[in-house]
Design brief:
Blueprint (H helix, E strand, L loop, with lengths): L12 E4 L2 E4 L21 E7 L5 H4 L24 E5 L1 E2 L32 H9 L8 E4 L22 H9 L4 H29 L4 H28 L20 H16 L5 E6 L14 H5 L5 H27 L1 E2 L2 E2 L4 E7 L14 E5 L6 E4 L6 E2 L1 H10 L21
Parallel strand pairs: 3-7, 3-10, 4-12, 5-13, 6-7
Antiparallel strand pairs: 1-2, 4-11, 8-9, 10-11
Helix pairs in contact: 3-6, 4-5, 6-8
Length: 425
């Protein structure tokens, strides 16, 4: 089928023999007379977070700027170095607690070692999804490749969003058509949920007239949350009867996927398809406190190796394991770079972050977090080296990411500005 001077609706599907096939974002979906924003492919954000950090001496280059010598880890994917920025000497201000800080990777909520009443805040991905997630079938995807049921994604109320841990189940949710009965049940649940919100809102308005100013302010915030939830429910109901995209199943899902490297590879493969079909624009993949990984030359569990105490044999095995993790991440970035859209590659339109709550897992140190930041239309090919003693705020990078999406927030968590040295291409 050939289209000539044709304007396609963003949600166009191809139908034939009872099959409905969704399309990815195409140039023909751009209006003939359009604003600058309308002529660009949608922008996305992906985070790959590690609960056990990366060994700093193997990751960070010795020189700063653009003319740095690749570190041992970076030397394994030199083809991608022009597409990414390495950041050292960064961390979340006011965050300590070792492993406890795992939940703050994308929130940067202040946490002390002795804080028994810690309450988290909204994560970067969920703030993005709150404002822009209604434009896709799935406002966000929260995933885990280690099987420990943890995620870096948190709601505005500080509740962790449980992750999807099965690559096969994720593929089915994204691309396998739901039976008619399932769609009908989902639609009924959505309608029921919206009626409940209406009832609760009416009761709350009645109550509001009897309350003081402080409580009325709390109810105003509540109404805002109710309205946002109603909008999400309405958007979800609209998607129920729209056909899912039809794609080929990745080879990585052809066999049983165990925890570790294989699961990480499978997750990345499905994530790339989700972005390419515009099924979701905000994705987090977390690798928590890992267990044993099947790799040649590795005999101990990931957690034990990360707590190496400078033992040479543990450091040798840790390098093998971390190189394998980074290789899968690099392959994912390459996939995004290979897909062309109207405004460049999929990578040009997707910010890809790799980081961890731990700078030194062996000493449970939350300073000097590992940070690789790729794509998104920024100028890359550099090492931004900050002070390893007095760290630069990583939330500044998060604020830059928000601004790149057109969300011009004044701040994010403990940010002080957008990130110094990170500029648009």
């Amino acid at each position: 089928m050939k289209f000539t001077n044709t304007k396609l609706d963003r949600r166009t599907v191809l139908r034939g023999s009872g099959l409905a096939v969704g399309l990815p974002f195409l140039d023909a979906m751009i209006p003939a007379v359009a604003t600058a924003a309308e002529t660009e492919s949608p922008r996305r954000f992906v985070s790959f977070s590690l609960g056990l950090g990366l060994h700093g001496p193997n990751l960070f280059p010795e020189e700063s700027g653009a003319d740095y010598t690749p570190s041992p880890y970076l030397a394994e994917f030199t083809d991608l170095l022009p597409d990414l920025t390495v950041c050292s000497g960064v961390s979340h201000p006011q965050v300590a607690g070792g492993h406890r800080a795992e939940g703050t990777i994308l929130t940067a909520a202040p946490l002390s070692r002795s804080d028994a009443n810690f309450r988290n805040s909204i994560s970067l991905d969920q703030l993005m999804a709150k404002h822009l997630g209604d434009q896709t079938r799935f406002p966000s995807l929260v995933l885990n490749a280690s099987g420990d049921n943890s995620s870096p994604s948190y709601t505005e109320n500080g509740a962790m969003i449980p992750p999807e841990m099965s690559p096969s189940r994720l593929f089915e949710q994204l691309f396998v058509p739901d039976p008619p009965k399932t769609r009908q049940q989902d639609s009924q649940r959505m309608r029921h949920g919206r009626r409940v919100m209406d009832l609760v809102a009416e009761e709350a308005k009645t109550l509001q007239r009897t309350l003081g100013a402080g409580d009325r302010d709390k109810l105003d915030s509540y109404f805002t949350a109710v309205n946002e939830l109603e909008k999400r429910l309405a958007a979800n109901q609209d998607w129920i009867n729209r056909p899912k995209p039809t794609v080929s199943k990745p080879k990585s899902l052809a066999q049983s996927v165990a925890d570790g490297i294989e699961k990480q590879r499978a997750m990345f493969d499905v994530m790339a398809l989700a972005l390419q079909t515009d099924s979701s624009r905000f994705i987090t993949l977390h690798l928590g406190n890992g267990g044993k990984v099947e790799l040649d030359g590795v005999t101990e569990a990931h957690h034990a190796l990360s707590h190496h105490g400078q033992d040479e044999e543990k450091l040798r095995q840790l390098a093998i394991l971390e190189n394998a993790l980074l290789a899968e991440w690099a392959n994912f970035v390459r996939k995004l770079k290979s897909v062309q859209e109207s405004s460049g590659s999929l990578l040009d339109q997707t910010m890809v972050l790799l980081t961890s709550n731990l700078g030194n897992a062996s000493s449970h140190d939350n300073k000097n977090m590992p940070v690789l930041f790729a794509g998104g239309g920024f100028k890359h090919g550099q090492h931004l080296e900050f002070d390893t003693k007095n760290n630069y705020p990583l939330p500044n990078l998060y604020l830059s990411a928000l601004h790149r999406l057109g969300l011009h927030e004044d701040s994010f968590a403990t940010s002080t500005s957008t990130m110094t040295g990170l500029e648009l291409a």
